[in-house]
Request: fold
Amino acid sequence: MIEKTITSFLGDNRGPNFLILVMKKIILSALVAAMATTSFAQDIVKSMKGKSYSEAQSTLNAALSGLSAEQKAKGYNQLVEISYPEAAKAYQDITLAGMQKNKVETSAYTPIVNALNDAVKCDEFDNQPNDKGKVAPKFRKKNADRLANFRSTLINAANETTDPDQKLFLANAYINSSESPLFAEVLKEGDQYLGYAQFFVAAAYYNKKEWKKAADFAEKAIACADVKENAESYFISSMQNTLQTRTDTLDFVKRLTKLDANKYMATIASMYNQIGEKALSARVLDNAIANDPNNKMAYAIKGENAMGEKKWDDAIKNFKKTVEIDPEFTAVWFNLGVCASSKGYDLNEQLTENGKISPENEAKVKAAFAEAATYYEKVRQQDPNREKVSNWPYQLRMVYNVLGETEKAAEISKIIGE
Reply:
C-alpha cells in the first residue's frame, strides 16, 4: 500500500531502485526522530541542570508529551532539587519571622509551594509502572522527609492573607500535598490542618462568588470541629446562590438532610415549599414534631406556611403552640397579631352585606381585632424599643382605631412620635 502510494505520487518512470531509496529515507527519518525523542527524554535532567526554576520548568513542560512516566518523575524531582534550597531558606526565614512577630509577604512562600506541588507530581509519575511493568518509586521517601515540615507554614499564611487568590494559592498547595500518597506515612494519624485549608479555600471562592466551588470545599471543611459552624454557614449560603432549578433545590435538600436533618429542618421545609412540595414540607415538620414535641421552630414554620395560605385559624393554632413552648419568641407574638387582625378584616368583608353588618357578626369581627390587640401588646411588652420588630406600634394603633379605642391609639401615636 505504501509502495503504491509513493509510486502514484512520483510516477512509475523512476524505477524500483529509486523506490527503495525513498523507503530507506522514510525509515531513517523515523528512526532519527525516535532516537532524538529518546535521547531528549534520557537527558531531561541534564537539560534542566544549571537553569533557574522558571527556565527548568519551561524545559520540562516543553518535553512532557514525549516523556515516559519514569522520565516525568525525574523531571519533576529535578524541579524539587532546584527549588529545595530556596524553599528550605524560606522555611527558616518564615519560622524566625513568626518567632519575632514579623510580617511575611505571600511571595516568600512561593518556593515552598513550588517544591510541594512538584514533589506531588513527581510522586504521581514515580509510582506508575516502568517499562518493565513494575512500580519502583525512587523519590518518595527523600521528598516526604525533607518537605513534610514545610507544609504547616502554608496554613498560617492562608489564614492571614485577605487576598482570595493568594489564599487559594497557599491553601490549595496544602490540600494537594495532604491528599497525595507522598505524605501518607507522615499523615497516617490524620491531618489536623486539612479542614482549615479546605475552609480557607471555601472562603476564597465565596469571596470570588464561585458558589459551587465554595459549597464543595465548605462541605468538606465541616468535618473539622474548629471551623464547623462557619463552614456550615458558607456551605448553606453558597448552595442557596446556586439554586436555579428544581433539581438544584432537591440536591441541596439531600445534602442538608445528610448534614443534619434536625438542625436544618426549617431550611429543608422552606426549600420544599419554594418548589411547591408542600406535602413534603409538612411531612418534614410533622416528623420533627414527632421526634420532639417541643420543637418550637417546627410549629413556627407550620404557622408561617398556614399564614402564607391565609389559613388564619391554623396559623394561630401553630403560633400559639410555639409561644407556649417559648413565651419569649417575640416575632411569633407579632405573627399572631397579624393573623388575628387579618382574620378580622376577612370576617368583616365576608359578613358585610350591602354595606351593613349585623350586631352578632360585628361582635365576631371585633373579637378578632381584640385578640390581635392582646398579641401586639405582648410584643410591646417584650420589645418596647422596637429592636426586634420595628413596626408593631403601627399595627397596634391600627387595631385600637378599628376597635374605637381612640385614647389607646393616641398613646401609641406618642410612641411613634406623631
